[in-house]
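My hope is that you will study the protein record below before we discuss the fold together.
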Amino acid sequence: MTTKQILVVDNEQYIQEVTKICLETVAGWKVEIASSGQEGIIKAQTYQPDAILLDVMMPEMDGIMTFENLQANPLTKGIPVILLTAKIQASDRRRYAQMGIVSAIAKPFNPLELAAEVAAALGWSLEK
């Protein structure tokens, strides 16, 4: 089985570090980090991850605008996206689903459960 590759796009260094450590340690996945929407789009094109964890609230280009740019690009359109967001209500979840976003994980998240939440949203098993 090949190792899953995840791209985490978040402007907060603490979130980047916690997410990377959790996903690599708990799930054994390879994690790449981007600090902005623009950097995330570039890395998604070159890195071709199996999934993207995308922060909603970022300066300059927010997560929704980043997602729309990813969807408009044939190289990144097929990559599943999970939002990481502090603001999540039932209406937000419905809107995200209608847009084609796989799932949304609320911040702050439980670091030990993050890999399981991502795997469940994507239908992956967590076998290392």
In short: The first helix runs from residue 13 to 27.
